[in-house]
């Protein structure tokens, strides 16, 4: 203890300064460099941390001036007047910054920025969401599970299943192969093969590919990027990350692009096409354009040429536009063939293609309307009157299109039967001959099997006929897979299915559809990649 003089107050003890607590939700970062954090030298705070101003506590005193001021009902303000425009702009800015959504966005942005500074998180975001132009077409389509589910269970329309129903479906589909080294190696090899085929199509080298090589390719083929396109590319050295740039050169031999980056100091680098993404929407070309092979032309015949001898007409001699035009013969109808094909046939094909395009758009519209109807039904909502009217109009338009489509299909098939031998194509009676041969082989196989079984042979003639028809169906599929697939081969296959349906008892028709017809349709979809030509596969079809 120390002595204190009389009349002096006790000195106040010296307190340690209390550190200001950090703002809740955004603690200050430790500025020690961490080798595991990318770009740790950058500031990640969205706004500086400001502590609340200290308020000095004052003891009340009895001063007449203050008491008089407190009694004044209308105190005068001594603030400096400001410009109304500036004050309103500042008020709006403060209002925007003080909204809860803005604060939440700032917090989320700060957390996301801190997350992306971690190398593993940054790479995970690249692998998850960055797809090049050539890979986007391969990965943006339907996955294999969805395709397999739709083809295995075509009558499954429900979107919500119980656990028991889902377990039954998984048991029927079998256990998938995944997360094994062999599976990953197989998937990577398949992906590299698809990329190689896409590059050949981009270089217009479709003659190096067979029709079977295009089965698993997407319906829309992306076109290669051109020089001067703005892109986002993955750079690995000297900095690892995504950077924007511009294409300066294209190397089709090595499937690379020469990219000049916008960021200062990066320079120009060679980037593979699997790590380059265009900033603008990519241009595509339908796969059916590459599937149209060049037709063989007869060597002794050539398309008719237009001569000037037959261009004299009294009615058009003084016409300055059509008097000496080389298209005059076509406009007058003198030329009956164009490019070796009848003009009427080309007109029918053009109309048929337009009808198919319109029908495709209507089907997509009908599909969207069905989705909306299912959603409203699941929510126990009634459909509006406008929705019902639009749905009825769409159905009526489809009915008219189907009538016109059947008419044009019959006319086109008649022309195909006439011009097929002239174009060097096999005669259209060949699928019928193959079908008869398959029927004979199937009957012989069933007869030999019954002889080998002896007493256990099937003696019912209807059952023998059904077994022979099913065997003939498999032989026809085998013949289609070996030969060049065309629409008439599939037409013969569908005719065989229709004949088998007529032989089956109506009570067993549902079983036939689930166990035979569904799998045949699955095989057909895997064998055929003909674009719009699949409409020629049947005759007199009720669309």
Automatic annotation (TrEMBL):
Pfam families: DIRP, LIN9_C. Residues 14-25 have a biased composition (Pro residues). Its main location: nucleus. Residues 58-67 have a biased composition (Polar residues). It comes from the Eukaryota. The keyword Nucleus applies. Keywords: Coiled coil, Nucleus. GO terms for molecular function: DNA binding. SMART domains: DIRP. One of its GO terms (biological process) is regulation of cell cycle. Residues 130-237 form the DIRP domain. It is found in: Nucleus. One of its GO terms (cellular component) is nucleoplasm. Residues 359-418 form a coiled coil. Residues 1-88 are annotated as: Disordered. Belongs to the lin-9 family. This is DIRP domain-containing protein. It comes from Patiria miniata (Bat star). The lineage of its organism: Eukaryota, Metazoa, Echinodermata, Eleutherozoa, Asterozoa.
């Amino acid at each position: 203890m120390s002595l204190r003089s009389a009349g002096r107050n006790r000195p106040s003890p010296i307190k340690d300064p209390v550190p200001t607590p950090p703002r809740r939700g955004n603690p200050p970062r430790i500025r020690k460099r961490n080798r595991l954090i990318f770009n740790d030298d950058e500031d990640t705070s969205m706004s500086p941390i400001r502590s609340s101003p200290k308020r000095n506590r004052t003891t009340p005193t009895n001063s007449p001036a203050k008491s008089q001021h407190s009694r004044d009902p209308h105190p005068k303000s001594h603030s400096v007047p400001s410009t109304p425009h500036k004050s309103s702009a500042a008020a709006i800015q403060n209002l925007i910054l003080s909204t809860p959504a803005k604060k939440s966005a700032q917090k989320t942005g700060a957390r996301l920025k801190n997350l992306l500074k971690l190398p593993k998180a940054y790479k995970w975001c690249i692998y998850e969401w960055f797809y090049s132009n050539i890979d986007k077409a391969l990965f943006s389509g339907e996955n294999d599970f969805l395709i397999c589910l739709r083809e295995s269970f075509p009558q499954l329309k429900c979107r919500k299943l119980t656990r028991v129903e889902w377990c039954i479906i998984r048991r029927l589909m079998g256990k998938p192969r995944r997360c094994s080294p062999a599976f990953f190696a197989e998937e990577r090899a398949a992906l590299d093969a698809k990329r190689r085929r896409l590059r050949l199509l981009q270089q217009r080298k479709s003659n190096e590919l067979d029709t079977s090589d295009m089965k698993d390719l997407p319906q829309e083929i992306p076109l290669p990027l051109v020089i001067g396109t703005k892109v986002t590319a993955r750079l690995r050295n000297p900095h690892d990350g995504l950077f924007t740039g511009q294409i300066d050169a294209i190397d089709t031999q090595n499937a690379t692009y020469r990219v000049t980056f916008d960021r200062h100091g990066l320079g120009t680098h060679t980037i593979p096409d699997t790590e380059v993404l265009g900033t603008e929407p990519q241009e595509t070309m339908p796969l059916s354009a590459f599937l149209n092979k060049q037709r063989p032309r007869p060597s002794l015949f050539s398309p008719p040429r237009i001569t000037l001898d037959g261009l004299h007409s009294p009615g058009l001699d003084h016409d300055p536009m059509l008097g000496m035009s080389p298209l005059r013969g076509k406009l007058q109808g003198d030329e009956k063939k164009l490019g070796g094909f009848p003009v009427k046939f080309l007109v029918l094909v053009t109309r048929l293609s337009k009808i198919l395009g319109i029908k495709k758009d209507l089907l997509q519209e009908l599909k969207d309307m069905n989705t909306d109807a299912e959603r409203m039904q699941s929510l126990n909502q009634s459909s509006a009157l406008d929705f019902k009217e639009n749905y009825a109009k769409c159905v009526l338009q489809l009915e008219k299109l189907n009538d016109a489509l059947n008419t044009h299909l019959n006319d086109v098939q008649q022309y195909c039967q006439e011009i097929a031998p002239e174009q060097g194509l096999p005669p259209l009676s060949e699928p019928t001959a193959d079908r008869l041969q398959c029927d004979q082989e199937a009957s012989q196989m069933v007869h030999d099997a019954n002889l080998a079984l002896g007493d256990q042979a099937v003696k019912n003639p209807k059952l023998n006929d059904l077994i022979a028809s099913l065997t003939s169906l498999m032989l026809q599929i085998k013949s289609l897979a070996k030969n060049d697939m065309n629409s008439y081969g599939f037409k013969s296959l569908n005719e065989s299915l229709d004949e088998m349906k007529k032989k089956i008892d109506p009570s067993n028709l549902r079983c036939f559809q689930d166990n035979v017809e569904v799998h045949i349709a699955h095989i057909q979809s895997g064998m055929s990649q003909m674009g719009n030509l699949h409409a020629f596969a049947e005759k007199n079809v009720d669309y």
